[in-house]
Amino acid sequence: MLRSILFFVALALASWPAHSVHADTRPNIVVLLCDDLGYGDLQCYGHPQIKTPNLDRLADSGIRLTDFYSAAPVCSASRVGLLTGRSPNRAGVYDWIPPATTPKPDARDQVHMRESEITIPHLLRQAGYSTCMAGKWHCNSRFNSTEQPQPGDFGFDHWLATQNNAAPSHKQPQNFVRNGEPLGKVDAFSCQFVVDEAIGWLDTVDHDKPFFLYIPFHETHEPVASPEALVSQYRDVARNDDEAQYFANVTNVDNAVGRLLEALTQQRLRDNTLIIFSSDNGPETLARYKGATRCYGTPGDLRGMKLHTTDGGFRVPGIVNWPARIQTGQVVSTPISSLDFLPTFCELAGADSPTSVSMDGTSFLAVLDGQELVREKPLVWAYYNATNQSRVAMRDGKWKVLAKLDGGRLPKMQNITSESLPIVADAQLTDFEIYDLSVDVAEAHDLSAEQPAQAQRLAEKLKVFYFELVANSHVWQPR
Prior knowledge:
Elements: H1 2-14, H2 18-21, E1 28-34, H3 53-60, E2 63-69, H4 75-84, H5 120-126, E3 130-136, E4 158-162, E5 177-178, E6 181-182, H6 190-202, E7 211-216, H7 228-234, H8 241-266, E8 273-279, E9 315-321, E10 330-332, E11 336-337, H9 341-349, H10 365-368, E12 379-382, E13 392-396, E14 399-405, H11 421-426, E15 429-436, H12 452-471
Parallel strand pairs: 1-7, 1-8, 2-10, 2-11, 3-4, 3-7
Antiparallel strand pairs: 2-9, 4-5, 5-6, 8-9, 12-13, 13-14, 14-15
Helix pairs in contact: 6-8, 7-8
């Protein structure tokens, strides 16, 4: 009898499906992106009132990056850079993208991420990953229209999105579209709704295949709205009800992240899932525009806010967590950018990074293993609509460089066309400032006069990479 039992057990094991015995061991990848969340808005980044226990645990059990950068100091450009691993200028996305209405002289109605751009989900899907997006798209001016490519055209198997902000607010938004079908009003707060979508999608995919999940939250961008139960927790510590709303908005995102982590754990996916949490740019300035009444985000000790090329504009929280690989409790000061996601994810997936176009990111897998990151290119930003006069910036090792164009005389521009390109191409970098960010995170002490040789070296380096970027940026044709 025992011999018969052993025979049938051996037969069952021999006939077990091969994909179950040899399951794909490549990691799942989750990118969580907040909107307008400041460097100092999380408890683990020093906020004195806002409670973010789930994100704090994510940082404590992984890596908290002190020098993480977004691809731009403004939303659309930042998102395009994240998805492509290229400066958004190369894709022709220089600023936020308004919805297309009528033709504009600067061609902003035409701006979108063109279908020729090669994206993370496209490459990962080719490598065998399931792919999903749920949240804010903001990569085109004609959303859910056949006139421009949509999320599904860039490699997402499943997508839930809005063109820009949740409307009329984060509470019960009415502008979500799922795979091309408008949903109408949903009875939930935006961050919770997109996590519901993500969890529901996870229930449907083959867990023998790895997945890529991109969740760009609408929070904390205006119009801010938060659950009353959370707002009431902050009224005693906030200066006013609007600030309590903002604090609660961050905590609502934290709660949503906690729900997603719990779902990954329950489905036994958590251990081999690389999770990255960050923000698209720095915090919005209170009352900068009419509806910005609840913009109480903070850049912490950094200088500037959203739309600035000082670090407050694009140095943002960066949390990396992967239980199967990353040692817990690390704080890493290596400069890393969202431009680095594409080459990093391609290396993990065994996919080839694009070679037909100029890339600006570098794989940071070495950092996850406690090794040094060797970056061939410095990080360079050219934002022609910057609030501060220095429209061009560079991070090179510990050094930050700022430069004006033609002494600050170049007019602000939200888009570059064939007509305006000559003005930009002929403008010269001037008024260089250099800062040692290892001792001066506030960019308060310009060292250009004290260290002229260093200033000259960095200025020449910035010129090389800036003018290469200008020469290889897409420009739009007014019509």
